[in-house]
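Quick question, first post here. What does this chain look like in 3D?
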Amino acid sequence: RCTPTKKQPDSPMPAKKDSKAPTKKKGSQKEGAGPRFTQRKKSTGKIRTTVQFHRPYTLRAPKAPKYARKSTTRTPLTQDRFRVLKYPLTTEAAMKMIEDNNTLVFIVDLRANKPQIKTSISKMYDIKIARVRTLVRPDGLKKAYVKLQPDYDALDVANKICVL
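> Answer (accepted):
Ran it through. Tokens below.
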């Protein structure tokens, strides 16, 4: 069996006990009461130069979303020829342009420009285009007049895309 041993002190010299007890002064207050008068400490804060108070900047944690807010990214208008062209116009004036001026008339996206319209129509219908003229109608749609080169016939292309 083990017998418990006494702990030995870390320091070789034993601690001294003060024989003097704190003495009270004759004119002191009762025990437990605080000082009678205290001096106020003057705050040494920042000197304010404006009357408005603006809240300080605090930590802004980086966003860590649980799921993506958009499922897919949108392709730009320049890469998507199906978004540039909406539909061909089939009014009487448009039919007259097809027959007389070798010109097709389309309603296109409002943000599409002339080179985008030209490339998308030439890729979709395998035709060569001489020039493109555009206007924005009062109802807010953009109309494109597409003049074909002389070796292509607008009547054939209109029959191919089922306008006539």
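Helices lie at 81-84, 92-101, 114-125, 154-160.
The radius of gyration is 46 Å.
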